Every structure is written in structure tokens, then in C-alpha cells.
Amino acid sequence: MNRPRLNADTLLCILPFVEKSTICALLQTCHFLHHEGAKYLLDEEILIDIARGYLDSFILFMLADGLHRVRFLRRLALWSFTAGQPIEPQRTMSSSTGRALAQLFRHIAERGNLRSLGLPAEAEALLSSTEELPLAIAALPKLRYFSVHQAGPRGRWLLKNLKSELVDANISLLENGNPPNGEGVQTVQEEGGQFGHLEGDAVQLCVHSRRSLRKISIWADRTIGHLRSSPKPQDIPVYARLTDLSLSIDEFGGKLIGYLSRAFPNLAHLTTHGYGGARLDKYRESRERNKQDQKELGRWTSLRCYKTTVATLYALGIECQVQCVHLTHFNVDFHAAMLRAGLEDVRPSQLALRFTGARWLFHNDFHAIFTGPGGQGLKTLKLDVMLDEEDLRIHPIRIIEAVIQKVIMPLRSLVTLQFSMNVECFTEEHDSPDFGQFKQIIDGLVADKIADIMRRASAAASGSLANIWVELYVGDDEDLTREAFIGLPMDDPFWDDWECPA
Taking a C-beta distance cutoff of 8 angstroms, is the pair 147, 170 a contact? Predict the structure, then answer.
């Protein structure tokens, strides 16, 4: 009796729906599946941990079967989970592996279709394994996304000479061959030669993609805004199609915003990751420099969405209207005057504000935040109060009253409010009697009544508040969360979609 068999077409229809481990097993059953099954293994992003020695076997796999598999590789990320540790180049990857990897990239450049490539956090150490590797990667013609971190001389050369025209880039540069904090990866110092040190920041090094780049993330690049002399406007490359910028700032001080607005004139979405803890005078100096930079080089006319911290909003001093602003703050950074000045700069119609410590609501200058011109155009507000141990001494009713008096009533144009008060955001005091009493009071509050009081208070102040969502988090259990809605129902997509308009 003959065993039932599946024909080749049926097998190929099944392969897209089975697990990768099953495909690996099927590849070893017959020549047909060994040849045809590889493309189903490569249809997703391939993540290779080079620190564990997986790269050699991956290269052998890709170069087997007459280079048939090269054309199916679309997305590749080389990674090392020892990031942040001092790693010497020879420990990261041997020169023989580097040459084999360079050979693979040359074949991909000739006949492949690689669209996305990510290099590990120790990119400079990887690129230093052999001189062939940067040359081979630079020759890739079809990349649309490229990620390189801790790029030194070879990484800078690669960015400058990349043949592909990128759509999305994720970049961090070493400063003078060292990471920004002076620790971490050991790199090869280059003096002259093909990979000699190239001056310039990420904006200048990616100039080959200025006509195609739409999104870029720049991490802790101290060269941006710290040029030896102010550039002339005509010397700044213009990325006319770029609409999305994510910027990590490890220190404040240099001119930045005028330079970026000149390079990215059509920017719509901006995210800045700033590090807090600087002195207030340091923030003021940065603010003054950036405002002067905008006078000299120009400013954005408007932005759709800006995500940042209160301190960074103040320090960068962006002078343009922003439709939607997302702000967070940590205790070390918060000054009501900084928030008021920052909001006056950007004049949002939609604001998401998260801050830790309800005690800030009782500062004398908090009331001035929303009575000033920066708050008068607000139509939508998401206010997220994260309580900490110092708030245990404040009665929850007083917190809600402060929100009504200092936020809701001054905002007469406010139409939609999402207010949340989170009791579970601190853990050290969970066993204290104060916490138990505080949580019991929160548990006894009626969210519907609070929402109605907020609506009535707005109406009494000639306000326009019509849609309210009140959330009181008293525990991780959903049964302990109190919610109430007025106007828009909970399942209305507005609550999710308003945060960052497309």
C-alpha cells in the first residue's frame, strides 16, 4: 500500500503558516524543500546575535545552494547582547568571519534585495574586523532602513559613502572615537588613510539620502549643535521629505533648533529624549542659544506632534505652533515657570501632561501655567497625575479640587479632558498605614460624580468642557480601577487617536 503524499504545490502553500523550527526540519527532508523552503525562513527580519557565535553558521547558510538564498534576504539585524561592555574588535568578530560577511554583502549587492540592515551597538568594533567590510556594506544599493550605533571612523566613512538612498535611519556617533560617556567600546583609532576621521554630524554624513530620507533617529550626537563655527544657511543640507525626527540629547548648551529647522524644513513629528538633572541656569543658557539660533537660521512654521520632557521643552525653546504636545516630567526637572514658558512657545491645541507628585498642583505658580497664553488655545487635555509617597499626606479630594480650580476652570476653550490619578505608581510605602488609608479614600470616590463636578465647574466658568474621562487607579486589578465617561463613550477611537495626528 502506497503512503499518501503531498505534492510540491501543496507543501509550498503550507510552509507560510508553520513555525520556523518546522521549516528548518523540513529543509532536511528532500532536495526540493532544501531549495524552496529557505525563502520562507527569510521572509521576516533575521536577528543574529554575533556575541554567541551564530554569525558563521548564518553566513554558511546564506552562501549555500548556489547563492539561491541571497535574493530572499530582506531584513537583517546583527546584534550583540553584551552591549555596554568594553569589547575589543577581535573578540567581537574574527577577521575571517569579517571577510566572509563582506563576501556575503558583495553577493547581496550584486543580486540581492536587502532593504533593512541594523549593525550592533559595537558597530565600530564590528567594522574594524576587516577593511573589506565597510566597503562591502557601502556598496549595498537597495537599503531603505539603516541602523548604526557607536560609529567611529569606519562607521562615519560608511555613512558618508553609502550607495543606498535611505528612507529611515537610526544613528549614533562616537565623539573622537569614544562613546559620549567616555566608556564602553574600544575602537581602532585611525590616522589618515581610507577611514580617516570625517568631520560632521549625522545630518551632514547622510547627505546622500537628502532627497529620500523621511525619518531619522539621532542618539547622543554631541557634534550636533556644537560646531566650531555657526554654519552658513547655504552650507546646511536640506532634507525636504523628512517629516519624523527623534533626537537624544545627552547635554544642553549648543545651538541646535535653528540648524535642525533649516535641515528639516518640513518636519511634522519631533521626539526629543533629554537627560534631566542640569542646573536651571544651564537650561536658561540653552534656551537663549536656541532662540538666537532660530533668529539666525530660521524656524519651523508649525509641527503636528512634539514628544519631550518639560525641561527639554524649555531648554530647546522651539518657537512655532505645535498641534499636539506630549510632556513628562520628573521631580528633579520640574519648574512651573519652565512649563509655562515652554507652552507659550508652542501654543498647543492638544496636550498630554504626565507628572509625578500631586504636590506640584499646590505651588503658588502652578495656576499661572494655564492662565497664560500657552494654555488658552487648548481644546484637548490628557492630565496624568502619578502619585508618590509624599502625596500620602494630601487628601485625594484636595487633589481633585486643585485640578478643577487650577486647570479646568482657567481653560475656557477646553472641550475634552482625560484625567487619571494613579495610586499604584509607587511601591515602597504599600505596607504603611498612611498608604492603606489613602487607598481606602480613593476606593470610596465615585468617578461619575467627579466627572460631573468637573463639567459643572467648567460651565460655571463659561467653559466648553463636554467630553470627560476620569480614571482612578487604586490597584493593578481592573476591578479596582474607577472610570467614568461624559460625552464620548469609552470605545470611541478619539481617545486613542488624538495623541499624535498623522
Answer: yes
CB atoms within 10 A of CB 409: 21
According to the model, what pLDDT value does residue 49 have?
A: 85
Instruction: Please state, in angstroms and rounded to a whole number, the distance separating the CA atoms of residues 9 and 32.
Output: 11
CA pair distance 448, 162, nearest whole angstrom? 59
Backbone angles phi, psi at 413, to 5 degrees: -90, -5
pTM: 0.85
**What end-to-end distance do the CA atoms of the chain give, in Å?**
63
Instruction: Tell me which residue of 77, 138, 71 sits closest to 102, measured CA to CA.
Output: 138
Q: What 3-state DSSP class applies to 6?
A: coil
**Helix, coil or strand: residue 415:** coil
Residues 442-495: tens digit of each pLDDT: 777 788 899 999 999 999 998 999 999 998 876 655 555 778 888 877 666 666
Please enumerate in sequence order all residues whose Cβ is within 8 A of that of 330, keeping only pairs 6 or more positions apart, or say none: 276, 309, 356
The alpha helices in 7-122, defined as continuous H runs, are 8-14, 20-26, 31-36, 38-41, 55-63, 89-92, 95-111
pLDDT (0 to 100) of residue 488: 77
Neighbouring residues of 30: CB distance < 8 A, sequence distance ≥ 6: none
Grid cell digits, residue 60: 554558511
Burial class (CB in 10 A: 0-12, 13-18, 19+), 356: buried
- Dihedral sign, CA of 355, 358, 360, 366? positive
Q: Position of cell 532627497?
A: 211
- CA dist 469 and 420 (Å) reads 8
Give the Cβ contact number of residue 381 at 10 Å: 22
Task: List pLDDT tens digits, range 298-337.
Answer: 999 999 999 998 889 999 999 999 999 999 876 555 688 8
Distance CA 211, CA 204 (A): 13
The residues, ordered by sequence, that sit 6+ positions from 225 with a Cβ below 8 Å of its Cβ are 253, 254, 255, 256, 259
Strand 467-473, strand 481-486: pairing: antiparallel
Helix (H) or strand (E) holding 218: strand 215-219
CA-based diameter of the chain, in Å? 91
Q: How far apart are CA 502 and CA 497, in angstroms?
A: 9
User: Count of residues for the chain?
Assistant: 502
- Residue (of 378, 367, 287, 373) closest to 325 by Cα position: 378
Backbone angles phi, psi at 341, to 5 degrees: -65, -40
